[in-house]
Amino acid sequence: MKQIFESDNISFVEVSESLIEDYLIMVNDYENVNRFIGSTKSAYTAEQEIKWVRGKLDEGAAVFSMIEKKSGKYIGNIEFMDLTDSQGELGIAITAQMQDRGYGTEAVLAMTKYGMEQLGLQKIVLRTKPFNARAKHVYEKCGFTEYDRDPEHVYMELLR
Q1: Domain that holds residue 64
Q2: Is residue 102 part of a domain?
Q3: How far apart are CA 136 and CA 28, in angstroms?
Q4: From edge to edge, which strands make up the β-sheet containing 10-14?
Q5: Residue 118 forms part of a structural domain
Q6: Residue 127 falls within a domain, yes or no?
Q7: Which of 27, 123, 129, 140 could bridge to 87 as Cys pair (CB 3.0-4.6 Å)?
Q8: Strands 87-94 and 123-128
Q9: How many domains in the chain?
Q10: Is residue 58 part of a domain?
Q11: What is the rounded distance in angstroms from the CA atom of residue 104 to the CA atom of residue 78?
């Protein structure tokens, strides 16, 4: 796995087919992960995940798997979607096993720094479910502010 950048406790590496089993455990965990990031209870398959990894690598997407430096354990994925020259939408998913350890805050801070310093972003937006208070707290801690809301999402932004 090729490391792209790092923070104190996390290596941010290219997504990889070698992590497919970990990806499947995470995205198919409806209670702890999928209900916050997905819209379906349908299980993802290995074939779908392989296609996703290959597609992201082919397009040179700003998506990274996070690996705990100390143990080498998979933490989750973080991504900038819908990138333009000045803006990107941040998305993050962390495995149930690695939640509540401070990795979300560390990852969001590292990724926003990467986006602004390496990609030249002026604005980073994100959306979260209204019932995901833990995520909203992390985003606020990292400097994001709410700018809109609807029944499905809370929309937040961070300006350079």
Answers
A1: 3-122
A2: yes
A3: 22
A4: 3-6, 10-14, 62-68, 74-81, 87-94, 123-128, 154-159, 145-149
A5: yes
A6: no
A7: 123
A8: parallel
A9: 1
A10: yes
A11: 10
Residues whose CB falls within 8 Å of the CB of residue 72, separated by 6 or more in sequence, listed in order: none
pLDDT tens by residue, 108-128: 999 999 999 999 999 999 999
Which position has the token pair 């149930």? 96
Assigned token pair, 146: 């709410």
Q: In this structure, what is the dihedral angle of CA atoms 56, 11, 37, 79, given to the nearest 10 degrees?
A: -40
- pTM tops 0.85, yes or no: yes
- Distance in angstroms between the alpha carbons of the first and the last residue of the chain: 31
pLDDT in tens, 93-104: 999 899 999 999
CATH number assigned to the domain comprising residue 107: 3.40.630.30
